[in-house]
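Standup notes
- HV: blocked on the assembly model, inputs below
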Amino acid sequence: DAGVIQSPRHEVTEMGQEVTLRCKPISGHNSLFWYRQTMMRGLELLIYFNNNVPIDDSGMPEDRFSAKMPNASFSTLKIQPSEPRDSAVYFCASSAGDGQPQHFGDGTRLSIL
Amino acid sequence: GENVEQHPSTLSVQEGDSAVIKCTYSDSASNYFPWYKQELGKRPQLIIDIRSNVGEKKDQRIAVTLNKTAKHFSLHITETQPEDSAVYFCSSRSAGNKLTFGGGTRVLVKP
């Protein structure tokens, strides 16, 4: 199994630009999670999907952030416009269902200049 | 919502000694408690988990205990080795499929 696959691994861009992060969950997993990790705030859940449907987006910081899951094998997290305070490591995780272990991807290290 | 507190924030132990990390949670409906290990620059990796119908679970040098009444759960690492050095996160699952994470414990095992 290839595990959760995220791209890009690193992204450096200037503030104001649009940023799109991508995630491919483990095949057969029906839950997908987007997390953000910073030194100050730790590991925060931004949004999660069950069967491609957004269930809880209460962690999404503001309207500049949006997430989609058009099918069971792909999800995107978009930031538009990006700001320096969005700099963080963004992790995607997937699980086989409620109460099942979440498996994390390698993350995207995002730097907004 | 759920709140998870984790202590200590840093822990330094001599190789071969034991390490204990403690967490508390607030939502009595929480029923699943996974622990993750994160090495520097890497992804969090699940190392062990426990469900609310079990009080203790062990996997080689790692054990977790759960006290539902007190809403406490703990990670115990015995015979620590340098490769145990990492940041450890506790978490709890309450509503739906959502995990809430503790703030992390940075463990340093000194040779």
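- HV (later): unblocked. Chain A touches chain B at residues 31, 33, 42-43, 45, 48, 50, 55-56, 91, 95, 97-99, 101-107 (CB under 8 Å). Chain A has a mean pLDDT of 94.
- Next: hand off to the docking folks.
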